[in-house]
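Deliverable D2.4 — example input (structure tokens):
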């Protein structure tokens, strides 16, 4: 029985649109992430999962420890449901959430917020000033892990923190140490230009070579600079963790002595964008099904919905991939539509009204913002319907 037959059989009682998670595929992906991490713990990036029951399953797997959350309200919610060791990987400007954190010693003991300037400290102090009691706020310093060359004329990597050099990091660490009510517990440095950029793009060998050259030089530069930053900060305060990397860079990041843990999440679902890496492969685990509702001509079918574009630059790689049956493609003039999506190709000839077309999202957790549940499939059996964040009434972004 092929995958399409399995998925159709497991979900026969469901009416599309809906999303599934193939548990065997996810377990295989998780095992591969742990192998690549070579003994260092993996902090699960919740933005790439966005489903509490799935997060629980992953964290029950050897090799995974802690959560990398994307907003403070999310972290507080997860903490209230018993999750521990939660790092909010992006600075927050949510005054209400900061006040709630400061007023809840249990949450404050488990949640760490990220800062990259004294302006963040000032903002937090103002937000919690009216709290009747204030728990100590755990903070993590975010570092710029981007690659800069040619005297600053070239840059690769996410535009995140202004903290790039050891002296800058040491100055901020000293400023945090002087502030009552704050404790610096960790460093975060995400090398997006390596972890989040595939080095095997399709049909563009020249670009692929340029990406590999950039990533090689970036990795050599970063291992030295990140190590110096960690040493400088450790002269000022003890650190509980130094986090780096992502699904696309795990095996390289863990080789750095300064790194104590890595982050990963997308690799659990293995969305479309992670097909374009040489260093690893995975199993598509998260998919969504759309029903065929029209047949405009023998070589075209139209499915309901489909316009689930991924964040990032507005390029074709951000579109969902028509996955099963194999051989379908978008109509160039329509693409993935808000209400309907025409699909072309020989495979359309065998599809009838009511049949399902299975898609892969370009990214991982963003899929869950479209569906209220992930239907968990084991073999050809539906074993559980797990609510997503959206299904629990939570839309953090």
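Example output (designed residues):
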């Amino acid at each position: 029985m092929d995958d399409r037959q399995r998925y159709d059989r497991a979900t026969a009682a469901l009416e599309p649109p809906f999303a599934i998670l193939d548990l065997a595929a996810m377990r295989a992906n998780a095992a591969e992430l742990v192998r690549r991490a070579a003994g260092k713990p993996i902090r699960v990036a919740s933005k790439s999962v966005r489903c509490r029951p799935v997060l629980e399953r992953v964290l029950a797997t050897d090799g995974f420890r802690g959560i990398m959350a994307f907003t403070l309200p999310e972290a507080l919610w997860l903490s209230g449901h018993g999750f521990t060791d939660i790092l909010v990987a992006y600075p927050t400007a949510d005054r209400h959430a900061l006040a709630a954190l400061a007023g809840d010693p249990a949450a404050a003991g488990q949640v760490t917020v990220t800062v990259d300037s004294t302006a963040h400290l000032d903002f937090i102090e103002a937000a919690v000033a009216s709290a009747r009691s204030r728990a100590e706020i755990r903070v993590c310093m975010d570092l710029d892990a981007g690659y800069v060359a040619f005297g600053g004329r070239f840059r690769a990597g996410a535009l995140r923190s202004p903290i790039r050099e050891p002296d800058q990091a040491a100055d901020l660490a000293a400023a945090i140490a002087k502030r009552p009510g704050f404790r610096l517990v960790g460093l975060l440095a995400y090398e997006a230009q390596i972890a989040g950029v595939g080095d095997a793009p399709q049909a563009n060998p020249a670009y692929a070579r340029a990406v590999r050259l950039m990533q090689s030089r970036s990795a050599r530069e970063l291992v030295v600079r990140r190590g110096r930053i960690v040493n400088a900060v450790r002269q000022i305060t003890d650190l509980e963790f130094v986090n780096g990397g992502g699904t696309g860079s795990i095996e390289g990041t863990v080789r750095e002595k300064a790194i104590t843990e890595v982050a990963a999440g997308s690799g659990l679902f293995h969305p479309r964008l992670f097909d374009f890496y040489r260093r690893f492969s995975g199993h598509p685990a998260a998919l969504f099904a759309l029903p065929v509702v029209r047949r405009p001509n023998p070589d075209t079918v139209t499915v309901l919905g489909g316009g689930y574009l991924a964040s990032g630059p507005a390029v074709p790689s951000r579109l969902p991939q028509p996955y099963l049956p194999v051989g379908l493609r978008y109509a160039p003039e329509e693409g993935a539509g808000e209400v309907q999506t025409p699909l072309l190709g020989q495979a359309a000839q065998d599809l009838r009204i009511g049949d399902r077309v299975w898609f892969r999202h370009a990214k991982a957790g963003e899929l869950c913002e479209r569906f209220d549940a992930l239907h968990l499939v084991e073999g050809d059996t539906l074993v559980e319907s797990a609510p997503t964040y959206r299904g629990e009434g939570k839309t953090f972004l």
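The chain has twelve helices and 19 strands.
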